[in-house]
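Today's session is about reading a structure prediction critically. Students often jump straight to the picture, but the first step is always the sequence itself: look for stretches that repeat, for charged clusters, for runs of hydrophobic residues. Only then move on to the predicted structure, which in these notes is written as discrete structure tokens rather than atom positions. Here is the chain we will use throughout the hour.
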Amino acid sequence: RKMAQPTFQSYLPYTRDWILRLAILSILIYVQLLFSRFTRERGWIHDRTWHYIFQLEQYAIVSRLVLYTACKYLWRKIVVETSSTTFLTASDSSKKDVAIKSSLISFPPESFDDVWRSLFFIYLACSTCGIISIKLFFHGGEEASIIASILLVCFLSSVLLIAFVAPANLFFYLADCLFNGKVPRTPRSKLNRNRAIAKISCAMVAIMTIAAVIEARQLPQVEKVDVYLSKLPSRMDGLKIVQFTDIHVGPTVGTTFVKQLVEMARDLDPDLLVITGDLVDGSKEDHYKAIDPIVQLKPKFGIYFVTGNHEFINGYVDDWIEHLTSLGITPLRNSRVDIDGGFDLVGVEDWTAGRMGHEAPDLKKALAGRDPNKETILLAHQPKAISDAVEMDIGLQISGHVHGGQIFPFHFFAYLGNPFFAGHYRQVYGSRTQIYVSRGNRFWGPPMRLFAPPELTVITLRSTLRNR
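Below is the predicted structure for this chain, in token form.
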């Protein structure tokens, strides 16, 4: 039996339905963003209780509106439209009950189909509820939570699955509209096409997820970089700076990794240790013990810290600044410090600070009264600070934030949004300013990295005042 040939007009009701859903979703997200702005303007976000409620509200909105819609879409494409009983009888009104029943889950499972449907349903439930569950139940502790890791892996792998399934289905949808029914097609051929898309997508995502988890669990690669600076005195030649960045201590990163990172840094024998933001994802009460091993390092010129966006987003930046200061780590918040008379080390707040009710990054304030003949090294979490660095004749900027994209294929979006993506860039915008952007020591959120391995950077300063 041949299937009725689709036309553009036959797709209009289906298209209008999805446009309406997206419009409602967009309106609700916009209302949520207005509420977020309202709470910030009134300073409620600085109160611990209000901030916790605010975060739960954000996670609930995302889980209910975005993730639920996405997982419902995956259930339809992976389960409903690949079931022969469902798909081949759905167009027959006399067999509508059979079609509906075949897409449901039977308990206890009666067949292999029931087993994999049950597992897929649990997987989607973890993807939908994982973020808010972590916030409620798995946000604290010295060590990484296995449950939190599993929930976040489910979440990110479901995003990858959509990235494969949606474009494939969109392609065939547009092809049907373009050819306007000129290509003969039967219900069985469409069912086979749906199954092929589902199987290939699931197989690719499974392989990518396993590879990403394995890559993320590896210790950082040591990246050694020589940076030549024109104003650096010859007596500072060979000074080694080790960079900690984007550790993201929280539900999926704990004390064990921090200790391993400290041991790796100790073997590098740094003269100076800099922490360029996103150190933690959580409160001081939950994670302060995981940070403490850092002070076991005793570099000659000390340990310095600048804020990242996650310190502000999580709402505990002042608590963490107080704790780090008590440990002997020096925060640079739009300020600078002289390093043995050889160069100025400058630190600015993250770009998120101003939007979260704190002092915005202010490089001019940090450099006020400096000696223009003295070399300057800037610590800034986000590479976008480079424009100010070039304007103020900074010799070197050290940044993180981008994670090298962290997960393929999202590298492309991170690359488009960050002209300075990863690695060492010289003569930025035709100036003498250089920037080094680290891929980060660990990962953010899901314990997954793909084609963006973590790194531990050691920068050796070289003076151009002596022969190379």
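Discussion point for the tutorial: The chain has a mean pLDDT of 83.
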